[in-house]
């Protein structure tokens, strides 16, 4: 049985009820984990209100603003974890960003600024959050991030985000190698396309979903809950022998050549 009783889990990346992180948070809660949630603050406090209402049923014991581009916010997030929980067991990294311009058109046209911003938010943040989590994972731990096949193969319009996901998957392996001696595991779930706020910025996203439905062995797309279940497995002791891996939750699409 998947049992996360007594585990403290920080979940990043919930923007709304379609967010993959929301699917993951619900499964972690169902398995008994004590949940902490971060949200991306904005000037008008829109995300704060929306996310706090959404996550209320999970009764998070921490609810914190955390823009990964702001070192002070990252620091206060982990200071709050130290003060309130004393230790961290699970870190869910489910966030990414690329400008609309870098998710379509000619790949070679991306600007230095858009490229750097995307890699900083989508990839460096995993290193940054893992570094902050490491001293708090005193009893070992599990770090799970979210990837996509566009980091391994060319998917039209995924462009800069494909580079960010390739770097993310490599980051998973290097972090797993470093943190393994502390019994901290690091893995990624590579999900099939799911309609979310972030994915709506990708040109031709509808075609990506249709294609998976036609070609994947299961002849369908996947749900947020299926991704949440796989992530919860990677967060739990049921996967205690697994680290540095990319687990595909894509209805089998990745195995297909044609
Ligand atoms: N939706 C898909 O089809 C799909 C497929 C595979 C992988 N993924 C990955 O899943 C993850 C979650 O995306 P999603 O599809 O649930 O979309 P989403 O829009 O619900 O989540 C993206 C999150 O990133 C957060 N974010 C953006 N910039 C941030 C910053 N500077 N600091 C902190 N948080 C920031 C947003 O607030 C949002 O909560 C991403 O890594 C995405 O690439 C998505």
Chain-wise SSE layout:
Elements: E1 8-11, H1 20-30, E2 34-39, H2 46-55, E3 62-65, H3 71-84, E4 90-93, H4 112-133, E5 141-147, H5 159-179, E6 184-191, H6 205-215, H7 224-235, E7 246-249
Helix pairs in contact: 1-7, 4-5
The chain binds nicotinamide-adenine-dinucleotide (NAD).
The site of nicotinamide-adenine-dinucleotide (NAD) has 27 residues, from helix 1 and strand 5.
Shape: globular
**Which ligands appear in the coordinates?**
nicotinamide-adenine-dinucleotide
Gap between N and C termini: 37 Å
Average pLDDT level: 97
Description:
The protein is an alpha/beta fold. It has one domain: Rossmann fold, CATH 3.40.50.720. It is 39% helix and 14% strand. A 7-stranded parallel sheet has the order 3-2-1-4-5-6-7, with helices on both faces. Helix 4 (112-133) packs parallel to helix 5 (159-179). The chain starts with 7 loop residues before the first strand and ends in a 9-residue tail after the last strand. The structure holds nicotinamide-adenine-dinucleotide.
Index terms:
globular, single chain, Rossmann fold, 258 residues, binds nicotinamide-adenine-dinucleotide
In short:
With 258 residues, the chain is α/β, with parallel strands linked by helices.
């Amino acid at each position: 049985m998947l049992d996360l009783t007594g585990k403290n889990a920080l979940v990043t990346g919930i923007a709304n009820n379609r967010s993959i992180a929301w699917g993951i948070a619900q499964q972690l809660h169902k398995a008994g984990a004590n949940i902490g949630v971060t949200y991306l603050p904005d000037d008008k406090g829109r995300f704060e209100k929306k996310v706090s209402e959404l996550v209320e049923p999970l009764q998070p014991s921490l609810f914190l603003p955390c823009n990964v581009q702001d070192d002070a916010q990252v620091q206060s997030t982990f200071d709050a974890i130290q003060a309130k929980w004393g230790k961290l067991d699970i870190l869910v990294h489910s966030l990414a960003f690329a400008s609309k311009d870098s998710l379509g058109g000619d790949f070679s046209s991306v600007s230095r600024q858009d490229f750097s911003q995307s890699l900083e938010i989508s990839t460096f943040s995993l290193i940054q959050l893992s570094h902050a989590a490491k001293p708090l994972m005193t009893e070992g731990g599990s770090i799970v991030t979210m990837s996509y096949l566009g980091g391994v193969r060319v998917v039209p319009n995924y462009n800069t985000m494909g580079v960010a996901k390739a770097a993310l998957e490599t980051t998973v392996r290097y972090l797993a190698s470093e943190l393994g001696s502390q019994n901290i595991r690091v893995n990624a779930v590579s999900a099939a396309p799911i309609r979310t706020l972030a994915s709506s910025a990708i040109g031709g996203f509808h075609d990506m979903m249709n294609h998976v439905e036609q070609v994947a062995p299961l002849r369908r797309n996947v749900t947020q809950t299926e991704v949440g279940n796989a992530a919860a497995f990677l967060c739990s002791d049921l996967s205690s022998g697994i680290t540095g891996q990319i687990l595909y939750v894509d209805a089998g699409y990745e195995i297909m050549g044609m």
